[in-house]
Design goal:
Four copies of one chain form a homotetramer. Chain A is an alpha/beta fold. Chain A has two domains: about 60 residues, Alpha-Beta Plaits; about 260 residues, Aldolase class I (TIM Barrel, Alpha-Beta Barrel), CATH 3.20.20.70. Chain A is built from eleven helices and 14 strands. In chain A, β9, α5 and β10 form a beta-alpha-beta unit. Chains A, B, C, D: Keywords: Transferase. Chains A, B, C, D: It holds the Pfam family DAHP_snth_FXD.
Chain lengths: ~325, ~325, ~325, ~325
């Protein structure tokens, strides 16, 4: 950490800060320039509260040096985390494909799609039973009934289930049915939910918030890991920008950045990133080429009747073609 | 709603869509241009699922005409909503000032600040007992102990309490102590929490999410209102943009926009909007001048020792000066 | 400047960098932590090229301490710059009001509006003769003919003229007629144009780019000042964000931020900031309350016939009312 | 175009607007709902000035149906534009690789890099002689001297030259030496420059502005094309968002979006998109996989001595490896 003092800071105030920082357990080196005085802090800076320092009117700014996350940090855990679910691996170069409908709508719908994506090579079945919707008047999901159908689909296809958990109250029931618990973009900083997820034995698929920085995403992973659950899969799903042609803007650079900063697996959701089915194929190819550990894709056999996200769902035939292309790219 | 068909759309497909839309209960008017065919939909469009229409490959795009919120819409409720708490009014031209520390830290700290802000003319006491923090290693608030101190401060000063509720599990206890329940920016689309708030008898202070559009903010208010709680106070607290000098960017235009679209009161939080105490005074003045229904301001007598948000807290003396300026502007 | 070395950096590489930095004329202080080594650089760092340092694979990052602008920096010029045009002052607490049509369209149009705004108390007449338009098929301005009409309007009303200069080729002619030369948002980083403006004797009104940081705005002012023209007026006119209800998002915090960082006057353009005439009044009031040195406002007597920006133009009667309100707020 | 009237609009005003629109040459269809009246406009809407309509206080909003660009529009030109430069093709499935230093610094520097990138398979040599720099105190390029060196490098390697043109004053000289004229991101809406480029016989490489929408990029291409130069190559180079870890955010979706909307070639600049050399390889692979028509990459043999952009330049060896990977992906 580096404290930059204002040109007007009296020597006495600089000394007072040096003393306080030293008392908190770190070493301070002072560099005096013509206009600015820099205080370089090394050692254990964990007891320092940056906002208290910035409250001082003689402090110009505070520059952070270390990442604030530890358990998610590649610096302290150089090897890739690989998550194993019924023998299927996520992370460390394995490409995991999760596919299925946005929402579970009926047994027939789910079974049709589940068999189709399985046949094309998907390894995990996605499907929402509890649905976060912008409008209170939209379809809110089938709830536990939907979870039961997902269980049936798992029994029929052997595919582990990925489904969203929206709150503490329904956590236990979702945890019972799901193999991977998804925490949605809008809940990325729902801290009580993250803490509860940290106490679960199941892997967590944590989606990046619409306007979350990569560091904030890793801090949310840290919340889960700090409670004891180290099996966190990160998911880039598009961020909010000024561009309106696509629903969101896929931040594909997040993949190499996260590979550098963290050991956790990172997958991409091309369906939510654009909101348009025609964009899913090119973005999926790009995601594999950039080095993502997998994809989560919305597939529906009748998008024009889907209760949610029809516009961004691939038909099974398109999905099958996409799987062929992905196979070729991931071989390179 | 207007459906724009692609130039390649066959007549038969256009007729099919017209038929389906008519069967859902609305009237359709067709305008045929050289390249595009427009379908204008009027009447009851509530049964239409836009995403299903956009899934059709012959549909170019869908243009929405009506706002998706009803209860929060000024169109159906032209009069300003005025919320009355122990005789203090929020909305309709009354300027409500809420002030206090970011976090409740101790009885001494809270009492000192509460008396100071009361004396300067604040009407409501703010203070956090349950704190959402980006890092799991930061101070997480005093919890129920903090709520009890807030109650004491209310007894001592007569000021109603504004405090944040973070989750379903702690809702009941916060509801018991608070006069206004705050839902934070990061929870603006925590839909189960919004539904629970909708069942409360207490007014809800709903903060705009970091990257939420004004329409999304109003849809979140709609979630609360649809459950029966019509006492929602909106709060603009800065949005996330590319500018990094301030912590967030105060979207001051949100005030006149919301006044046009909705009848709900809208206040401003200048402390979080900038993250810098020196900016709080000018932004507070601007907020009153633009027509906001109030302010929520962080005040601390020792910012350099504050357990959270010291950098953006005003000292009591500065707050007193600010209250003088606010009084003059609000008289105009 | 602070160089943060990666944990893997060999001692030899650190020494090499220290040596190079010292040879460039600055002093280096080293702080060795458990994981990171910090190099604090003070003295004359102007010969250092940051990108060269970041190209080193052992460098984690580079933290800047000093602002890169000098002439525009309040640190080296604590007093407010006050610009005097025919006895009218801009900066240092004087509130300057510039008003007029978006485009000059005809003699009758310009004279009608000029007399109206003069009567309401505007001090400067704005009006575009060369117009930057997003579409090549839109009205591009009257060119020199428009400049001549502006001159006539000045003769008739006594108001100095503010008009936009778009390129090097037409600089001389615009310079001849205008009292203040406006450089538009889309040209904020048109560096050859900035250099030419720096050679002019006329004050420059420099508008902030749609996605320019405040630092970049000040660096563009520095370009002009470095060529010798110190009379730069900055203008905040809304930045581009994800919010689409308003055309842009007025970053009102830019005013106190710039007052802190620079001595140059800063005015606000509420017309472009929102794109809606109904928002101009509240935002103008807020701008004065926040401490802006003036406003530039679009006024048209027949907005529904305006060749450009009709949607954001105030009618003269509304403008007159606004001027009354502004007078009251600026008195406080 | 669709005009949405406010619920309060009197019938007489609706009729007045219908009449005016009809007089401008288009057909109007009226759909009357309970709260809103929709006016669907088809036929020739080119004479309508949207801002004039929005200036009417009874108009709620105006929804656009057609894209405002014509020459750049795939609707009117379904075949891909393929640009041929000395037998090298850009567009229509051909992958063009442009590589070289950010700035031309010396004959030795340029020749070393030119030979290296040629050997690895690059087809075009990039290099800046006139440099747009954020700071007036940074290296501004070698000017015409640099252009002469580029000519020498072309003679030695046979590679056509891509170089930036910054203004009208230096257009002629750059045009004389360059094979492709680059217009930089900060000049994307420098309309006089675009018009001049439209009169050139040389292909134009038009970079997307930092906060330009895809539609604005296509409108800028339209400016060039409307003057007669149809050889425009678009370039996505990262947009400005809230994420600060990378210099910009590569909007990789822009490639499939532009392929859908326009027939013009679209290439990607991964160097500026991230600002970090280590990200160039993964993003280049993703760019080819997503379907881009080419890449423009910064290469320097001594990045730690580069006069500009050292931090984002690849060393020749890394570039050679990247070319191998690109070849494999583009074969799929």
């Amino acid at each position: 950490m580096v404290i930059v003092m204002k040109p007007t800071a009296p020597q006495e105030m600089i000394e007072k800060i040096v003393k306080k920082m030293t008392s908190l357990g770190c070493q301070v080196h002072q560099s005096q320039g013509a206009n600015y005085c820099l205080l370089g802090l090394v050692g254990d800076t964990s007891k320092i509260n940056p906002s208290q320092i910035e409250a001082n009117k003689y402090v110009d700014k505070l520059l952070r040096v270390q990442q604030p996350y530890k358990l998610a940090n590649r610096l302290f855990h150089p090897e890739d985390t690989i998550i194993d679910i019924d023998g299927l691996k996520i992370g460390g170069g394995h490409v995991a494909i999760m596919a299925g409908p946005c929402s579970v709508e009926s047994e027939e719908q789910l079974m049709t799609i589940a068999h189709a994506v399985k046949e094309s090579g998907a390894q995990f079945l996605r499907g929402g039973a509890f649905k976060p919707r912008t409008s209170p008047y939209s379809f809110q999901g089938m709830g536990e009934e939907g979870l039961k159908l997902l269980k049936k689909a798992k029994e029929a296809t052997g595919m582990p289930i990925v489904t969203e958990v929206m709150c503490q109250d329904t956590f236990d029931v979702v945890e019972e049915y799901a193999d991977i618990l998804q925490i949605g973009a809008r809940n990325m900083q729902n801290f009580p939910l993250l803490k509860r997820a940290g106490k679960s034995q199941k892997p967590i698929l944590l989606k990046r918030g619409l306007s979350a920085t990569i560091e904030e995403l890793l801090m949310s992973a840290e919340y889960i890991m700090a409670e004891g659950n180290l099996n966190v899969i990160l998911c880039e799903r598009g961020i909010r920008t000024f561009e309106t042609y696509t629903r969101n803007t896929l931040d594909i650079s997040a993949v190499p950045v996260i590979k550098e900063l963290s050991h956790l697996p990172i997958i991409i959701d091309p369906s939510h990133a654009t909101g348009k089915w025609a964009m899913v194929e090119p973005l999926s190819k790009a995601s594999i080429a950039v080095g993502a550990d997998g994809l989560i894709i919305e597939v529906h056999h009748q998008p024009e009747c889907a209760l949610s996200d029809g516009a961004q769902s691939l038909k099974p035939k398109k999905f099958a073609q996409l799987m062929e292309a992905i196979k070729k790219i991931s071989e390179i």
